[in-house]
Design goal:
Blueprint lengths: L14 H8 L3 H14 L7 E2 H5 L2 H4 L4 H7 L7 E2 L1 H8 L17 H12 L6 E3 H12 L5 H15 L6 E3 H7 L5 H4 L7
Antiparallel strand pairs: 1-2, 3-4
Helix pairs in contact: 8-9
Amino acid sequence: MGAQQSSLPFPVPYLEEIMTETGFSQANVTRLYQRFQTLDKDDKGYLSKDDLEGIGELAVNPIGDRIVNAFFQDGRETTDFRTFVRVLAHFRPTEGTVGSESVNSRLSKLKFAFQLYDQDKDGKISRAELLQVLRMMIGIQVTDEQLESITDRTIQEADHDGDNAISFEEFSKSVEKLNIEQKMSLRILK
């Protein structure tokens, strides 16, 4: 319960449990704890959306808001260190064979990506949800008419059950040839 490593310059809460849950090394968890403390400017012990929105890489990411929201599940207004690391673990590169239960497995990465689209959490990506994400990602590079055409074509190609939406299974099938393990990995989390 909340085991600490006495050789660390400062105690990292729940170090052993976090390492077991996420697959991160002690060095990774320690580095992430330092980053967490840097973001927690007022030393509150938790982060708010404002704390995360100040990260430059997220500020320029077209779906940065959705990534930030992933840290705040179930209507929570704050995120603690353990939750912070669990979310980041989705972006930990996979090494060798990874069990399907692992937080950085292909299945977990796909579920995480799917929920970035499925904002109403109904288990399907609607036309409106897909259009909204594409609008954020593509922006002004195409006309609204072109964007709607891309959205309709994407749904038509992925929607195998004819309900005009994309289920998780259909989403998984439509991206099966993509190297999700690599595309959803940050080398700094290795």
